Amino acid sequence: MLADHKQRDPAKVVSMEVRVRGRVQGVGFRPAVWRLSRALGLRGEVFNDSEGVFIRLWGPEEQVAVFFDRLRHEPPPLARIDSIECKEGRGSMPADFRIAPSVEGRAQTQIAPDAAICRACALEISNSRERRANYPFTNCTHCGPRLTIVTGIPYDRANTTMAPFPMCAACETEYTDPGDRRFHAEAIACGACGPRIALRRLDGHAPYLEKLSSEECLAAARWLIMSGAILALKGLGGYHLACDATNFDAVSRLRRLKRRDAKPFALMARDLGVIKEYCVVGEEEERLLIGSAAPIVLLNASGGKRLPPAVAPNLGSLGFMLPTTPLHLLVMRGFARPLVMTSGNLSDEPQAIDDNDARERLAAIASHALVHDRRIANRVDDSVVRVMAGRARVLRRARGYAPAPLRLPSGFESAPQILAFGGELKATFCLLKDGEATLSQHQGDLEDERTFDDYRKNLTLYAKLFDHRPAAFVVDCHPDYVSSKFARARGLATSTPVMEAQHHHAHVAACLAENGRPLAAPPVLGVVMDGLGFGDDGTIWGGEFLLADYRGYQRLGALRPVAMPGGAQAVREPWRNLYAHLTALMDWPELARHFSQLDHCAELSKRPLSTLEAMMRSGVNSPMASSCGRLFDAVAAALDICPDRQAYEGETGARLEAIVDENELRNGDEAHSYSFSISQRSPGGPLFLDAGTMWRALLDDLMTRTPPPVIAARFHKGLAAGIVAMTTELTRKSGVRAPLFDTVALSGGCFQNDILFAEVVCRLEQAGFKLLTHAEVPANDGGLALGQAAIGAARLIDEAQRHSLRGGVRVARA
Ligand SMILES: [Zn+2]
Ligand SMILES: [Zn+2]
Hints:
The protein is an alpha/beta fold.
């Protein structure tokens, strides 16, 4: 490295060879190096190769030191430097500094995530003297579309949906000038050469309002929204549906027409000031909102102003984002109030991206559509992030995050290429190659046929973009997941081995991989609080304590299994879980006698209980499940929170969290929480965390008319304390002096509940455990594919080692 400043001879000319790794291609890195070198009077060259960026540098020692300092501290906005390695250079000094042609090697196929409009472009379109004033497709190297427009590799204009728009002379000049912000910006465009917007009626008459200029389209779109209409808006990765969020009728109409009864709508505001009128925005949340990923950020809705309840029924949070594209920015400009900006689809279908499809599907919802003539190549939904326990946690990883690769921990360097197919709900898939894992953008629930079609399309696209040739597939061990069935069929057809990963083991492995836990590290306790997943004993799991590393796991404990009368129906209808939980405590006649004054008992007794009893007794269509999600369902139903039907996955958890009484929660007296007990059914078998004692206390509180917010607080605290008690118990249980583990990995969809998560984190830290938690990868099933890929890789690496010891290498069928 460079000599210390004091010993430096300012006049001495040094020569360096510099290797930069990280996200350094397609993000304006070479021109940034070029500008910096020229500004400092350095000579040499910079080019891309298969490992990243390579720089040869000549100049006075002092200037070279400044170069490194500025490169490290002021990289281009979308770049991420993982490492800079320097060694002494060779050869003779050239006459200037230049950008040299790329060195072809193994395909370096980084596709960057889409980035929200940057400050410079935003200023440019607001300036009437600029040639891009009010131009809705303005972008530069530091912002604009990437994954949403790419159709092939290498990532250049011909392989994007910008291909049909030849650059004008002015754009070409910028594109070829290394000193320009748009040097090699593949999506470069202006009003003279780029895509255009149009306003279209969706009611069948005069499909295009042909005569309107771009400005008139924008003005008409704003007027339509202002007057209470619902507008379809062709965005970056799909269509949005927009309406005035403060207009009670418009929001209710949108909810009815979209057939979405309760799931919260996302909101967009023109600036932070508008958001702060409705929500509390912390420092980290502000950083997220204005960052280049510009996700939907879940915020506490306790600003001064209120929105109609139909925006986010029964929840205490609102999901806000800032304008992500110049088009959104131009539309939003007219509004000092938030707009609903929800995905353009009907309930659970994927967001529309094709213009004809959008017209067909959205005509019943929106009167007009603001469209444009740049094709959306890939559907990419808006990402959702929430700050929990002080850190940003990605809940839905899509626009702005995917397909940024995650570097795999040490030990995985020799892993072969692997494709992991993910789960079924909130599905993603994961490609493993060259020590990196690429997690796809959120695909959605694969039970929906359109979503599954899209998932298959994206598998093909990613294989092409990442030049991916998997040696093995990994699937969830659930026999009926469509992703697993599809992968097995494809494995047969292509003679590719298919490995299985247990659902909750994959959750833990995802958490390990995200946190860089080395392959050789000792096992951790994986605490997975989740909905449902297929267990290795044929029952359904979902509240698990697994001693696990990448290779395998041992089920040390679980929530005590309770019946799910009606199977899939029990997932939708919380009252079924309430009945099962209560009758696990005592017989129904006894319950009815003790708690006859409770409305819930009266309500439950009207249900078809004898059918349920028969199911539970025979076990037919009534599987046992150790699910944390179903426990939340049961508690919610006991508080009369959507007992009949959950409108969306996780509604009970979100609504229970929303009503929690803060004072009760902060009350340090543990007598104010419902305790869980720990039991063991068979010697040597797993320990069970039993909700029986919790239910007795909860029923007593119901009898004394304790307010539901207080009950909800006591439940959250009690469950957190139970999880920590179980964790502590499991370290002791080993009997040997050394504890079984000192590190706990938290995963599973129930940890998206801020209160449960924060309570568990705080208590485990107090108890002295090291914690691994999710941040960039969702704790829910959206992260599953990463864990599957890591598990598959660990097994194949072991296999290869075993066989190389014997002198032969082969890929085994697991
Ligand atoms: Zn820009
Ligand atoms: Zn142009």
